[in-house]
Model the fold of this input.
Amino acid sequence: MNTFSISSAQRTSFRDRTASSLPNGVATDATLTNLGLFFLKIGAILYGSGYVLVAFLQGGLVDARHWLTQSQLLDAIAVGQFTPGPVLSTATFIGYVILGFPGAAVATTGIFLPSFIFVLVSSPLIPKLRKSPLASGFLNGVNAASLGLMLAVSITLAMSALSSVSAWIIFALAAIVVLVWNTNAAWVVVGSALLGWILAG
Done:
């Protein structure tokens, strides 16, 4: 689990802003049980790149349950990029925003637990799966669907995030830096944040 280097006062302030900006007010229907079950389901069916997670979060937490707004989801993705570890650590941040430290612990456990179980159960079967044409076709189909999900949610998030000239400038520069120099995502996020601060001032 990642450790966020922000003060207690900053955490409280962020959660206060989160609660006040949710479409239906505070997420009163969010409990540790349904939060855990939501991330447990995602952890069980998520396949491919961790960025497919964004599509599930968009559909489940923003569109269906209204526990997060579009901008808060973008913030959570940025935190997942900036902090060490896989992008799935975004779940930790989201759990904290919704239900504090207990929510962070439950969300993190829920999203990572199925992976450990699947690895334990499937490790003896992997050599056979590699030789199976049916399994290969299945995985190719899932890969294609994963790319489609990432593309669709990327377009949705772009429509929300790229709302100013400065945002487009930062987007273009970040894309160039990544495509040309393959820069680490954490440095791209830090540089983009600093550039955004400069352009806003």
